[in-house]
Amino acid sequence: MYAIFSFLAYLTLACLVVALWKPRFCPVKNPTRLKSMVFYLTVSLVFFALSCFVDSGDSKLGEFSPTALDDVGDSAVGDGMGVTVLAKEEILIPATGRNRLQVTLGMREKQDEATQKELLSIAAREAVKYHKASGLPVVMVNLVCQKAVNALGERQLAQVVYIPDGKGFDGASTLTSPWETLRAAKRGFSLSELKYLQLWARYYRDYQSPSGVQEKELDSLISAELGVAPGSIHPFANALESLTMVEQ
Edge to edge, what strands does the sheet with 156-162 contain? Predict the structure, then answer.
């Protein structure tokens, strides 16, 4: 459900842009640009709120041991599950001086056998590496499955926020763990799932309606292009789950 609500939230923002150009696209009485903006912005915020609620209530709270960083990371890369840097940005925070480094990494195609532990280990090891190299107090790493034409095809595999001094984002907090955020998908994506996501990102704009994306029709198109039965590939079900670091 988290993946669905998040997708609908971003989709609604896209509809907002379209509605500003063509207000009649908005399903309200006597639509105007202002009405369209208010409608789609409100709906988008609702979907974002629902995605946060569902994620905190539905996702499994697992455990992640520090020893996993030693057990997995390097071997995973050595076996072909390496990463490439898609984006790296230092975010300046003048108010506190606690600048943040945000890094987006992409996995290579050979990832279908990657476990949740391996995915989180890779992201965590990269966060530690970038902290040592940059010296910044906060490092945020997002590991995505691939590079696509837009974010709809770049499903997240892991997300970590590393704050080793334990002072939080503001410098005044006291964290119980240097890992402010630890989230990972259950597994990597198969090659067919990666292709499906690429096509979904490419074609979804052509399947818009006032009620949202025409998912069944879009799935049929993508499945036909991949040569599989409609409804047989479900990449959106592989969503992030929250975990917690446990000491051993």
Answer: 62-64, 240-245, 179-185, 156-162, 138-144, 100-107, 83-91
